[in-house]
Amino acid sequence: LARAAAARREQQGERDRLAQGETPVDKEREPERLTQLAQAQRRVDEETRRTEELAKRLQALRAPRAAAVRAGIGWWGKNTMVLAPDVGPWMLLGSVVTDAPLELDKPMVRTCGTCSACIPACPTGALDTVGVLDASRCLAAILQRPGVIPRGLRPAVGDRLYGCDDCLDVCPPGTRRLGGGVENGRHDIVALLGLDDATLLRKFDHFYVPKRRARVLRRNALVALGNVGDLDDVPLLAGFLGHPMELLRLHAAWALGRIGGDLAVAALEMARSTERATTVGDEISLALIDARVGLQ
């Protein structure tokens, strides 16, 4: 790309010089300059061709797993991941862009056989078809995505703050590599919800957060607290009902409905009387139903 740009600049420079007022002496050099311009044009054409070929290769890198399977690194798992001998899904795929001639590898002749441990392990049933992932139900995707988490999937989030590896954790080649089991990390959700944006993003800078927006992590934390919190957490959640962001008010209302209790009902009723956003108001109404059921 850099070579193509340089060639284009060289060509434009030749054109600019030819466009300038020519003196009798310059006229004598016109054939030489035309030759230089033609040479610059050929270089531009060659670099453009190389750039187009490189662009085609870069397009292939959009699907590194497919390339890895074709290269014989591993085989397609039933959880749509690339699985390799001894490590299962626990590897990081990388790519090197080169124009060097390389000998082509053959795909690996191997499958998961009769093993389907990953399919029932998915907490939302996103792997309802072998080798096909329903991204709209995959928690790893949902917890990274901006916007509202679907109501029906929030209970499945559990205490997750980010991501989901359940279909990887149960993969036999991977569990052998990890020593037979995986211990999930845990965070203090209540403390997390009290952090300012800068601190929150710095603490979790290894997570992919869309456009570095702290509200995505706070949304996830509110859902997690609704799943694992108790009555002691109601005042914190009630405070989020007055948050300026609709996204956080909505998920805080759901969390209060999950926990329930007299204080949660009172907070939701007060919020419903002042809430102007229709989506949040609807969520508060549903949360009140959930919370009152818990009181019966």
Structure report:
The protein has 296 residues and is mostly helical. Helix content is 55%, strand content 1%. The chain has 16 helices and two strands. A two-stranded antiparallel ribbon has the order 1-2. α14 runs parallel beside α16.
Residue share in helices?
Answer: 40-55%
Main beta sheet, described?
A: 2 strands, antiparallel
- Report the span from N to C terminus: 68 Å
**What is the number of beta strands?**
2
Mean pLDDT: 83
- Radius of gyration, in Å, reads 29 Å
Given helix and strand content, the structural type is mainly alpha
**Strand order across the largest sheet:** 1-2
Overall geometry: flat
The run of helices and strands is HHHHEEHHHHHHHHHHHH
Ranges with pLDDT <50 over ≥5 residues? none
Number of helices: 16
What share of the residues does DSSP label as strand, in percent?
under 5%
Secondary-structure map with pairings?
Layout: H1 2-19, H2 24-28, H3 30-60, H4 64-70, E1 75-76, E2 82-83, H5 118-121, H6 139-142, H7 154-157, H8 166-169, H9 172-177, H10 189-193, H11 197-203, H12 214-228, H13 234-240, H14 246-259, H15 262-274, H16 278-295
Antiparallel strand pairs: 1-2
Helix pairs in contact: 1-3, 12-14, 13-14, 14-16, 15-16
Features:
16 helices; mainly alpha; flat; 296 residues
In short:
With 296 residues, the protein is mainly alpha-helical.
